[in-house]
Amino acid sequence: MALQRLEGRNPVVECLTRGRRRVHRIWMDRGARSDPRIARIEALAAEAGVRLERVDRRRLDQLADGRVHNGVVAEVAPITLWTTEALLDPVRLAGADPLLVLADGLQYEHNLGAVLRSALGFGVTGLVIPTRRGAGLTSVVARVSMGAIEEVSIAREGLFAALKAIKRAGVPIIGADAGGAPLGTVDLSGPLALIVGEEGRGMSSKLRERCDQIVSIPLAGSLESLNVSVATALLLYEKRRQDGWFTPKR
Predict the structure, then answer these.
(1) Burial of 100 (0-12, 13-18, 19+ CB in 10 A)
(2) Phi first, then psi: what are they for 52, rounded to 5°?
(3) 127 in Cβ contact with 154 (< 8 Å)
(4) How far apart are CA 82 and CA 140, in angstroms?
């Protein structure tokens, strides 16, 4: 598979630190002043035996294709992609409850990155994104996710195929959309697959038909909806609250 580019100090540090995929090469601005992040990249690259090359800023601009790079660009192996079945199998074997998020064609990279960040924070088993629609796993998504793209298992397949595997596993499917039962009145505890819809138009009617229940977030001020990444974070928080994550242990 083709190698990918990561731009920015934080994404490169996260990739090197988490060690889930190989970093093949790093380019760094030869005029950059040393700081903790630069020193960290240099140390991690040396430890991993990654080639680090000092280059002019103009060369970095070319490598990043005009995107923000903060003086660092890396060439890395692509993200490992799973099937939904493969996401579910180890969880079932361990006797744990799976928690999947299915993102119905998110168009904006910043939203997908933020959803990944929430997925990591709330212990999601995996994120499922469509094969052809929506934003891809770009360097912008990696930067916004703050390292989550390196940790969260991701399946990229048709959502209807994913839902068949989820149904076979007996996992309840909850869709987030307008007109659903208010959040807090729906049982989200235990195994769960959560579908969040595309910005603007929301979840498709065909996906809605395959949900066991629809949940919505009550809002004030005549506001129709929240940003999809914000809504996903709220839904995951409520799910984990119902699971007892935040109950003090005695």
Answers:
(1) buried
(2) -120, 125
(3) yes
(4) 21
- Radius of gyration of the chain from its Cα atoms, rounded to whole angstroms: 20
Q: Which two tokens stand for residue 212?
A: 């066991």
d(CA 214, CA 36): 47
**pLDDT digit string, tens, across residues 157-208:** 999 999 999 999 999 999 999 889 999 999 999 999 999 988 877 888 899 9
SS3 content of the chain, % helix, strand, coil (to 5): 40, 20, 40
Pairing relationship of beta strands 4-7 and 72-76 according to DSSP bridges: antiparallel
Q: Choose among 183, 14, 3, 203: nearest CA to 105.
A: 203
Q: Which among 134, 247, 240, 150 is positioned nearest to 192, based on CA atoms? A: 240
The amino acid present at 7, given as its one-letter code, is E
The DSSP call for residue 172 is -
**DSSP per-residue letters across 134-162:** S--S-HHHHHHHTTHHHHS-EEES-HHHH
For 157, the enclosing helix (H) or strand (E) is: none
Question: Per-residue pLDDT tens for 16-32?
Answer: 999 999 999 999 999 98
Amino acid at 19: G
Rounded to 10 deg, the angle between the 84-93 and 159-168 helix axes is 20
Sign of CA dihedral 208, 93, 96, 14: negative
C-alpha distances out from residue 196 to 5, 51, 67, 154, 216, Å: 28, 41, 28, 15, 11
Pairing outcome for strands 213-216 and 173-182: parallel
* Structural domains for the chain: 4-76 (3.30.1330.30), 81-242 (3.40.1280.10)
